[in-house]
């Protein structure tokens, strides 16, 4: 897998902007993120990007409704937005506008949104799934978190510091450029093909 690195500079504006991007399925455990958000004691806004899709014939529908009901129950309507599916071009703008990417998934084969977030310079708070284990260095590019909403919330609290977020953003972009930038990936493929001839 490869990715193009975004070179837009981030500007802080007082309200911490949290972002989740992905297919909305129960395995992603977005309810944990909502519960973590309830524990935040500073101004924030969480945007949840993605549509609900069944992952198998045994998965029941209605997950988005459950999430929206939880948001209502926790009185977070003004702090959490569900914006539905977006095109790849639209997604870039969501990544550019965000301050932190949060990904509480139970498991992941790869986790393309994690790579996209890092390529846009977002510090990441995520469970140790998929590519998260390769791109999150605790305290340097983000935080690997548990499935405890309090621990997740504590990690988000640490990222209130704009200087820390900027430093982590620089570090994660650098790491992703080295490991996943298309130029590097393509040169590795070419070298591999040539070695087989």
Helix content: 40-55%
CATH class: Alpha Beta
The unreliable regions are none
The oligomeric state is single chain
Mean pLDDT: 88
Shape: globular
The CATH H-level homologous superfamily: Glycogen Phosphorylase B
What can be said about the biggest beta sheet? 6 strands, parallel
Question: How many structural units, i.e. domains?
Answer: 1
- Structural class given helices, strands, pairing? alpha/beta
Which percent band covers the strand fraction?
5-15%
CATH topology group? Rossmann fold
First-residue to last-residue Cα separation: 23 Å
Taking all Cα atoms into account, the compactness measure Rg is 17 Å
Please tally the helical runs, counting DSSP H or I stretches of 4 or more residues: 8
How many strands in all?
Answer: 6
Q: Give me the side-by-side strand order of the main sheet.
A: 3-2-1-4-5-6
Element string (H = helix, E = strand): EHEHEHEHEHEHHH
- The CATH architecture designation is 3-Layer(aba) Sandwich
